[in-house]
Amino acid sequence: MSKLVLNLAKPGEQAPKLQLNLSKGEAFTAKLSWDGETDLDLHAIVCVNAGDGAKAQSLEDILSTYNVRRKIGGQEVGVLDKQADGSFQVHGGALRHSPDALDGALDGVDEWIRVDPSKLPSVSSGVLEIPLVAMIHTQAAAKRFGQVQNAEIAIVNASGAELMRASLSNQFGDFIGVQMGSIMIEAGGKANFVAVGVGFNGDFNSVLGHFS
After folding, report:
1. Within a domain: residue 12?
2. Does some domain include residue 16?
3. For residue range 146-170, what is the model confidence (pLDDT) as tens digits?
4. Whole domain around residue 84: which residue ranges?
5. 101-109: long-range pairs with CB below 8 Å, 24+
């Protein structure tokens, strides 16, 4: 037997107006800026952390200019397609990368990565972890951040609030790469940014070795 339900409005009362939840959910943007001709890059890796460290499952989890589809020596490498504007993405746009900047010639932000956790599939166990990494391009790896003018990274949330800002030129001057932090996404969809701030001097494949 179905439950009885009454209309609780009285004569003369207006029906309640329709309302929408205007919250778009949490999202994050990593912004990298610098000056000069050195090529810096932003990278992000979609990983599953089941308690034994964050691990990527496939090449489709790696948002990196090194993973963009291209030909080198007649051989096709990379799995990500460039969009018409030069940007590229993984997981249906859950993570999107700006067009690759080969130098710091732009005013303001030179490269960015936007992360929309709501577009990522949930995992059966553990949490999703997305490490965010800034590096000097491998062809200029003889340099360190201290030799790059005004290299700076910032992480902001969906409302524009700054969660972290660091001067790569000063705070990480002895390194060619730094993991600024990770975006952690719990099974229920709650997401937050956790700062790490670890510098290193290996190439990006050494980073992948840690997360795969």
Report:
1. no
2. no
3. 999 999 999 999 999 999 999 999 9
4. 28-210
5. 101/39, 101/40, 102/39, 103/36, 103/37, 103/38, 103/39, 104/33, 104/34, 104/35, 104/36, 104/37, 104/38, 104/40, 104/148, 104/149, 104/150, 104/151, 106/33, 108/33, 109/31, 109/32, 109/33
